[in-house]
Amino acid sequence: MRHVISALVMNEPGVLARVAGMFSARGFNIDSLVVGRTENPTLSRMTIVVNADDNTLDQVRKQLAKLVEVVDVHDFMGTAYIERDLALITIGVGADKRGNVIELVNLFRAKVVDVGPESLVVELAGTEEKIEAFSEVMQPYGITALARTGVIAMPRGRQSTKESDAHAGGKRTRSFDAPAAAALPPS
Fold first, then answer.
1. Which residue from 48, 97, 103, 124 has the least number of CB within 10 angstroms?
2. CA pair distance 166, 12, nearest whole angstrom
3. In 47-84, which positions are buried (b, 16+ CB within 10 angstroms) versus exposed (e)?
4. Residue 40 has pLDDT above 70, yes or no
5. Is a pLDDT exceeding 70 seen at residue 165?
6. 77-90: average pLDDT
7. Predicted TM-score (pTM) of this structure
8. Can you give the three-state secondary structure of 136-166, one letter per residue?
């Protein structure tokens, strides 16, 4: 089962290596891992996409929460959330078929960000499924390069979570005695 996990971590050197190493040591393949700054300069947000059953993922969440640099862990399973992936796609297309490609680009609400004599570069943001669907449609025209950012995610609307309470005051608060379920928002 696909899980999108958000981990709020201290913005320190080596944190990414420790988190990735923890997944690797347990034999998990990370489908996507994105790290970026947050509104608080001392914290970064990692968004990790993995395929695992619920029991195994519960163990991963517990191990992740034990890392000293990890402030909060949130599994989006069962909650309302928004996810986006960004792709830059170079399509090898000449002037004769460029109109067809641009129609499809507009249909997917993407945008052309560069035009060359024999290619277009398209920027597309959306779910993984949307990017995969666009890639399939573009295959006949010839995709020559594709770069993706990976999934980022945030909860929908105003959902009270431990994470928002933890960094609202700017201080790190965490309990090693709390069960893994405490990292999940109320249903």
1. 103
2. 18
3. bbbbebeeebbeebbebbbebebbbbbbbbeebebebb
4. yes
5. no
6. 93
7. 0.73
8. HHHHHHCEEEEEECCCEEEECCCCCCHHHHH
- Segment 136-152 shows an average pLDDT of 95
Q: Enumerate domains of the chain plus CATH numbers.
A: 2-80+156-183 (3.30.70.260), 84-148 (3.30.70.1150)
The answer for residues whose C-beta is within 8 angstroms of residue 34's C-beta and 6 or more apart is 46, 47, 149, 150, 151, 152
Q: How far is Cα 123 from Cα 117, in angstroms, rounded to an integer?
A: 18
What are the φ/ψ torsions at residue 167 (nearest 5 degrees)? -105, 5
Spell out the alpha helix ranges (H) of the chain: 15-25, 54-66, 98-107, 128-138, 162-168
29 secondary structure, DSSP code: P
Residue with token string 């830059």: 88
**What's the CA gap between 28 and 22, in Å, rounded?**
9
Helix (H, G, I), strand (E, B) or coil at 16: helix
pLDDT band for position 160 (cuts 50, 70, 90): low
